[in-house]
Here is the input.
Amino acid sequence: MIEIPADIREELIRHAIDGLPNEACGLLAGRDGRVERFYPMRNADQSTETYRLDPAEQFKVFAEIEDKGWELTGIFHSHTHTEAYPSPTDRGQAFYPEAHYVLLSLADRTAPELRAYTILDGTVDEQEVKVT
Here is the structure.
């Protein structure tokens, strides 16, 4: 399970909409599966179908997460026209098995869908998302 405060869920939605037409991305940090902070990041791919965290931003965010004693709780990205489910590319680039992969689908912009998964060796397991 991953617990996401409602205000951070709204940040995820805003960041995804602001990133259109491209996928948006970022990192989630906290403790014990509860998100404390969202770090919106630039999609270095600048693509409607893939994302890649900007390496310089990622390095700075990882340093701050460590300094605060937090954990990498999640890796976030949006799908602009498809469901919130990890694509084959997403599964192939899942390098952090301890993190949740948090996806937001904007296929229906009136009702964005937020889902989370763990991905280990290409195996996808959906996790509960608790919005508090």
User: Anything to note?
Assistant: The mean pLDDT is 94. The first strand starts at residue 2 and ends at 4. The helical segments are 6-19, 55-67, 88-92.
